[in-house]
Amino acid sequence: MDQSLRNPLFSPLAIFTIALSLSIGWGIRGNFGHEAGAMMAGVLSATAVAVLSNRDDWQNRVTYFALFGALGWGFGGSIAYMYPISFTESGQTASTYYGYFSLILEGGLWCGMGAAGTAFAAAMPLNRLTKFITPLCFVLVAMGLKLWIEEPLEALLMPGSGGAAANTWHRHESPLYWFDADWLPALMALIGVCVYDLYDRWKQRETRLDNPAMLLPFAAVGALAGFLVQLLLRAVGLEQRIHDALVIKMGDLTYVSPKTGKPFDPEELLTNWPNFFSYYPRHVGWIIGLIIGVAVYFFLAGKFRNDAKLLVYLSLGWLVAFLAMPVLGSIFLMPYGGLRLMPPRSDDWAGIVGVFLGGLIWSRRHGLKPVSHVMTLGFFLGGISFATVPMVRFLVRYPGHPYRFPNGVPEAFQHFQSANWHSILEQSHGFGHGLAIAIGMAMLWRRQPCDAREGKVGGWTVAFGAFFAWCIVGFLNMYKLVETWRDNKSIPESLKAPLIGFIHAPPEVWFNVVWWTAATVCGLLLLLHQRRRLEIVPASWVGKGQLLYVIFLWMIVVGNLCRAIPGFTDGRMVTEWVIFMNACLATLLIIALPGRSAATALTAKTAKSDQPTKGWPWLSLTWFAGIVIAAGIVAAYGYSTLALYQKDLEGKPYANHRRFGPDAKWRIEPILKHGEHP
């Protein structure tokens, strides 16, 4: 690569555009939530990177950037991060410092996986990338099936559960509940990639084990062996000992509740294992045996071609890390609330640690070391940014903070202090994460060679990337509009068809009919475009990327506004109004910027592939420096927060959770089987 070429991603306007894109997506994510909400930020930021890169080989992959940017950011969507912020507001020294540590870890995991997805789209050789889409589709379909099988599975395991998983405040009553974590999607992902491996090997059948039917005897023998081992352990009196060693109650059995004057009933506390284990202890043996038998089969016969092994690393990484930390690790640390980041809330963070490590190891072993560098940079830059934003908020609010004025906040500060600081926090978090992505990808820009031999970009996988962003990510978020409209009584419970009064259905049904009709049209047009160019689609890849970006941007901005209009107040001005204005600016920048430096674009002609690219610093050195800097930031931010606010940061004791001590949240409000979920 010609080292004299200017790096466009280090342009201040390019960095700002990428950061603004993620800020918009993250601000909207705050209203829609979870993994699907985080995907919106990933689509916008990754697409912006591709469009602004001025590299032919990145701009040609713009739909892949959108796809993998969405998936990368979606990994951390289930991690709850308001609890760590509440720890920083607790006024308790240990919890304050711990809160900043938790923010760095959570923000690092989230941004690290977002950076991994974005870098993966850029660094993976094109022939490998397009082939990888097939096993990825198997996994996405399997995870999508989770939405259809969860309630029937609940009903089978515990008749009368009534879809407890969908009930926010009683989700812990589900037989599938396990630390409020997404272990079932991780398991479905593993099943999906295994089904792909069976399909891939069945087509070639190089050995007898490649016949999918051979899985059955392994599963049967494993289940039988597990059943017999459990019978043997019971007969010799070891079953109960193993149970007592591995199963603990998730709460403090010595704590006396001030409400009742008595300790919590141990039978009301959940354990460190899924609920159905408690309901069906006699079935544990054959279930574990079945899993081992299946694992042995795939260990002996599995090939996981077309980089499907990455999906094995990610899904197994999630499950193994989850088992190692909150499940088994809590056995030794229960006096401190277990090996849990923010009990009693979700422990998805542990699974994402496993995903992050799995992706890091896989990329080092399979020829994608640049991805490991970018995701490491994303981890530290994103984590530091994630902790810095609350600290800045504390500083900005300090002059007129309520705790400094016991007799009431002066009128000059009242409107300022009453702002929707939660949304300001989220949009700022997104901007900080965007800066981390821009920096990481700018460093990759200089170090990733431009390969003129990788071939023409096209085919169904390109269309799939655009369809996934517009129709799948869009649906996973926009369908929540109907629920909000119904809660605000803006629409009736049932709607009749035009002119045909006897046909009526809930609004959700009509929404699905409209959405998937439009999605079908979109999919057909995308496929038709692969055969012959449609005039509405720009000829250049930059134009295609801009079209993808602008349509997606305004779809989610208008959808977000439609969700907020019922009950719109002054507090929404800093959310929907600001987001709308930012979207106008982002539209201007994403369309105007790429043409500025077309003469210095990095193409097959301008890149000198025979020249060595700039090297990366040692990964171990990056980790060492990052840990040292992060530790210093935890110390500085914790000390500053305590010095400024003492014990009165928010003035809302109910919102200032403590992680340690006699008033720790997990201790005073454990999850009770017949209570509401905190």
Structural class: mainly alpha
- Sheet with the most strands, sense and barrel status: 2 strands, antiparallel
Secondary-structure element string: HHHHHHHHHHHHHHHHHHHHEEHHHHH
Relative strand content? under 5%
| Cα distance spanning the termini | 55 Å
- The coarse overall form would be globular
Number of helices: 25
Give a count of the beta strands, DSSP E runs of length 2 or more: 2
Mean pLDDT figure = 89
- What Rg is obtained from the alpha carbons, in whole angstroms? 26 Å
Low-confidence stretches: none
- Helix proportion range: 55-70%
Major sheet: arrangement of strands: 1-2
Structure, explained:
The chain is built from 25 helices and 2 strands. The chain has 678 residues and is mainly α. A hairpin with a 2-residue loop joins strand 1 and strand 2. Helix 1 crosses helix 18 (421-447), helix 13 packs antiparallel against helix 15 and helix 19 (460-478) packs parallel to helix 22. The longest helix has 32 residues, at 126-157. The model has no long low-confidence stretch (mean pLDDT 89).
How do the helices and strands line up, and which of them pair or pack?
Blueprint: H1 12-32, H2 34-52, H3 56-59, H4 62-74, H5 82-88, H6 93-123, H7 126-157, H8 183-204, H9 215-235, H10 239-246, H11 275-279, H12 284-301, H13 309-327, H14 330-333, H15 348-365, H16 369-397, H17 411-417, H18 421-447, H19 460-478, H20 480-487, E1 495-497, E2 500-505, H21 507-531, H22 541-564, H23 573-592, H24 619-645, H25 665-668
Antiparallel strand pairs: 1-2
Helix pairs in contact: 1-2, 1-18, 1-22, 1-23, 2-4, 2-18, 2-19, 2-22, 4-6, 4-19, 5-6, 6-15, 6-16, 6-18, 6-24, 7-8, 8-13, 9-12, 13-15, 15-16, 16-18, 16-24, 19-21, 19-22, 20-22, 22-23
